[in-house]
């Protein structure tokens, strides 16, 4: 009988009601080391970007546009030349990540670039996700409704197919070439050309949710269609949306970098990781730090978002929860 | 006194691949306040579709082909969607077959019951909260203060069905539609749930449409019975009359198929054949290809509903 007390305790804990789905997902995510690493890296990066935004906007010691021709192409950790006037000296007292061909502090420029890159990533994906959910939900829920000769589902999904047929990057290049270059245009264009994947699987989710009893029950309670759609069905379709949005941020950052590298993106003197990289390519043998730091930052951010996305995919998928 | 629900000549068709198939044909029924009408029939005979039509929830490719549904003299067929939304959940409550999947897994039961009240009444949020606790107590859920913040996955099937009932009666409807409310539950819980529905019906004087294929439930819980076969009404009578003196051969067959105590060793009776699919219904009486008493007339013309006794009707050419 000595064991009875402990066994009882254990049975009690297994009888306790299971965690809510969100808490269960969080627990699985925490156990996934790669995903946790991605999450931590992103948290740190976001803090750096917020701090960077404040420092580069308000502190002259972190001004990314200050030109110091005497100190051009200095390597990382190099000290500041005596010829630089006091008010133009970087606040750290040395060039942490070196300087570029105009003597601008690469560390300050990287800080400014992190803000631009993350903002573009999040805003572009925000636009894409909202559009994708909107089109996908309409197509999935109102699928059979007919508008003249074509059903709603057919109309939206064929439009999606048409959008998918364009080679996206060249579509973006064309649009950017026609529009005045600005960070807002870039966000909008990346967002408007990357919603199709989200639309497709939101539609698929809604097609299956539509047949669920709780949706029928919601309608039998007299709730209006928009409430059934966005309050009852959408939260049940969010898991894959979250995963693809996370991975989407990574690809939006890559696209922005590529555009800036080609000179179509954010215009100088504003710095982004892409155009720091682009400036650095002419000095690839003389000043390798100019392309190494932005390139490395891009790789790290994209990797972190992808790891987090993969982790979320596992954590939110009930079929993979058996472990 | 007018009945709470009066359905006449209701026809529902499904248009599939350019062909129209009538699955509910000229169905008529009525329910008085405080009365339970059982709608009985095999799977696929149109019971659930009829129930959905009462709430205006028939979706493409289905459509209501004609007839009338009157809820206390208000015609519901062809009512605009917004007016129907005001009636659903308020004047008509519905309980679904499987409580496991009829509650949204992402909201607490309190949120879900409260949503109905917020939609149909002008109660404040505090009042809604109090009313939810009251309702949970009313449907016999112990410790409502704790249960109100729980998610559906933290409850048992019977408990979820009680929550569904609480949602259905939240706005004190005139009509409660229970679409096989106990099929997914085990037998002891079945009895509790049906007892609860009976109790609430008495307290609130609701008309109940009980859809089932279990004749045992009908005998215990219904006042009148309407038997459906292949989309048409076969027979309609009070529970006592139907069990004592069934007039339609289909009803007779159903009653003979119930296993009884003390009859061991004998083979259980079953009606020959199977229900034909809706596009292969025989002309004339739809039961004619399985009926043991079939006449020549049955194969050619559709039998009309005739009165057999006071409030006992059957659609059969036999007397």
Q: How would you sum up this structure in a few lines?
A:
The complex is a heterodimer of chains A (323) and B (319). By secondary structure, chain A is an all-alpha fold. Chain A has helices at residues 4-15, 21-31, 33-58, 106-141, 152-165, 168-178, 183-192, 196-210, 213-220, 225-233, 238-261, 273-280, 289-316, and strands at 78-79, 94-95, 146-147, 150-151.
Give your account of this protein's structure.
Chain A is an all-alpha fold and 323 residues long. Helices cover 66% and strands 2% of the residues of chain A. Chain A has 13 helices and four strands. The mean pLDDT of chain B is 89. Classes of the chains: A mainly alpha (323), B alpha/beta (319). Chains A and B meet through helix 9 of A and helix 2 and helix 4 of B.
Write the layout of secondary structure elements.
The complex is a heterodimer of chains A (323) and B (319).
Chain A: H1 4-15, H2 21-31, H3 33-58, E1 78-79, E2 94-95, H4 106-141, E3 146-147, E4 150-151, H5 152-165, H6 168-178, H7 183-192, H8 196-210, H9 213-220, H10 225-233, H11 238-261, H12 273-280, H13 289-316
Antiparallel strand pairs in A: 1-2, 3-4
Helix pairs in contact in A: 2-13, 3-4, 3-13, 4-5, 4-7, 4-8, 4-11, 8-11, 9-10, 11-12, 11-13, 12-13
Chain B: E1 5-16, E2 19-31, E3 36-40, H1 47-54, E4 62-71, E5 74-75, H2 81-87, E6 92-95, H3 99-102, H4 109-120, H5 125-138, H6 144-147, H7 157-169, E7 175-179, H8 187-204, E8 207-212, H9 215-221, E9 224-229, E10 232-238, H10 239-244, H11 249-256, H12 296-300, E11 305-309, E12 312-315
Parallel strand pairs in B: 3-8, 3-9, 6-7, 7-8
Antiparallel strand pairs in B: 1-2, 1-4, 4-5, 9-10, 10-12, 11-12
Helix pairs in contact in B: 4-5, 4-7, 5-7, 7-8
State the CATH superfamily name of chain A.
MetI-like
Largest sheet of chain B: 8 strands, mixed
Please count the beta strands of chain B (DSSP E, at least 2 residues each): 12
Low-confidence stretches of chain B: none
* Radius of gyration of chain B using CA atoms only: 21 Å
Mean pLDDT of chain A, nearest integer?
84
Count the helices of chain A. How many?
13
CATH topology of chain A: MetI-like fold
**Spatial order of the strands in the main sheet of chain A?**
1-2
CATH architecture annotation name of chain A: Orthogonal Bundle
Helix proportion of chain A:
55-70%
Please work out how many helical segments of chain B DSSP would assign.
12
Quick one: biggest sheet of chain A?
2 strands, antiparallel
Query: Which oligomerization state do the chains in this entry correspond to?
Result: heterodimer
Which two chains form the greatest contact, residue counts included?
Answer: A-B, 21 and 33 residues
Number of strands of chain A: 4
Helix-strand topology string of chain A: HHHEEHEEHHHHHHHHH
* Share in β-strands of chain A: under 5%
How do the strands line up in the largest sheet of chain B?
A: 6-7-8-3-9-10-12-11
Structural class, from secondary structure content of chain B?
alpha/beta
Mean pLDDT of chain B: 89
